[in-house]
Amino acid sequence: MLAMRIIAGHKEIARAPLPGGRRSVVIGNFDGVHRGHQHVFSIAKEVDPGAQVAVLTFEPHPARVLAPGLAPPLLCTLPRKRELLAACGIDLLIEEPFDAAFAALSPAAFVDEVLVGALQASHVCVGYDFTFGQGRAGTPETLVELLGRYGRKVTVVPPFSVPDPDDPACSIVCSSTRVRQEMAAGRPERAALILGRDPEVEGTVVPGAGRGRTIGVPTANLRPDTEVQPGPGVYAAWAEILDPERRVVARYPAAVNVGCNPTFRASGETGPPGIEAHLILGSAEGDLPPLYGRTLRLGLRARLRGERRFPSVEALVEQIHADIAQAARILERP
Fold it and tell me: How far is Cα 320 from Cα 326, in angstroms, rounded to an integer?
């Protein structure tokens, strides 16, 4: 069970107690719950010690209502976002249903009805690029002005950056967009710098073509629920098997292939990329538990190589065994 309480929108907030009479509210989408988001949560705790820390987020992502063609793919599923927010020490999560009527609220109405009237916010924290209200007319400056009328405080948090290990003179601004870019480019190590953890792909194990078993390297084929997927290639990853309550019941090092298996396709033939993971068993471990229908979470630690066509199945198998050995070596590291 999550210690964090979840409320379905500001109209349901009466069911959430307000201990101590103060509530520090953080507003945003928080896709991926990266280090920049975590920094904002820390600020919300620091500026009003002892206050209940509440996160106001929106379902679905506002862009899916306002501009569906421009809506970004999401870094994590809603259940995973909830888990990550709870791990940040959030007390209360308000998942505001975002529809055309809510989008039509003016900035003043959003402050009056939602932040002050329903949430009883004593303090509000937002990022530097926060916008709100009809036509995204509200800015952090607007928020400061409107909440100031009620004697409520606002903290606007500037961009949060981390050092760039590839260029000590530069830093990386933490953003969900940057994580998506690093994932698409097949750079999980750089995505991890922003996230503060390995980037993840999560989904259900489903039957595949069965080629892995026939060549002596069985794989779990993933039907991903996570919308953002890594670029084609072979990765070292930690594979976590989840139970129906989303508890981790087993964890294995794995070699993961993302791509179209070009060795088994005719030249020029294309198809949707797949994700398959070979879970690496230790010498003292028995067989894997049944995986079909189970939820598998893959935490990508490093990219081993790109996808390529091999001249023969034998050459492919030799490379796969080398990939597995390399993944095992990498995942032995702390």
Answer: 10
CB 237 within 8 A of CB 229: no
Please check whether residues 101 and 241 belong to one and the same domain.
no
Q: Are 85 and 33 in contact (CB under 8 A)?
A: yes
**Nearest CA to 54 among 118, 140, 146, 121?**
121
* pLDDT, tens digit, 9 for 90 and up, residues 249-258: 999 999 999 9
Give the Cβ contact number of residue 272 at 10 Å.
5
Question: What torsion, rounded to 10 degrees, do the Cα atoms 193, 204, 241, 301 define?
Answer: -20
* Weakly modelled stretches of the chain, pLDDT under 70: 1-2, 15, 17, 265-272, 283-284, 333-334
- Alpha-carbon span 33 to 81, nearest angstrom: 7
The total number of structural domains that make up the chain = 2
> What pLDDT was estimated at residue 267?
60
CATH number of the domain encompassing residue 254: 2.40.30.30
Q: For residue 253, what are the domain limits?
A: 199-331
pTM (2 d.p.): 0.91
Q: Name the domain boundary from 158, 185, 213.
A: 158
Residues 18 and 105 in one domain: yes
Q: What is the DSSP letter of 234?
A: E
- Domain edge (last residue) among 132, 158, 184: 158
Q: Measured between alpha carbons, how far is 262 from 270 in angstroms, rounded to an integer?
A: 8
17: left (phi over 0), alpha (psi -120 to 50) or beta: beta
**Angstrom distances, CA of residue 292 to CA of 29, 138, 207:** 32, 48, 7
Strand order in the sheet with 5-7: 5-7, 92-97, 52-59, 23-27, 123-127, 153-157
- 257 plus 142 within the same structural domain: no
Length of the chain: 334
Peptide bond between residue 60 and the one before it cis (omega within 30 degrees of 0): yes
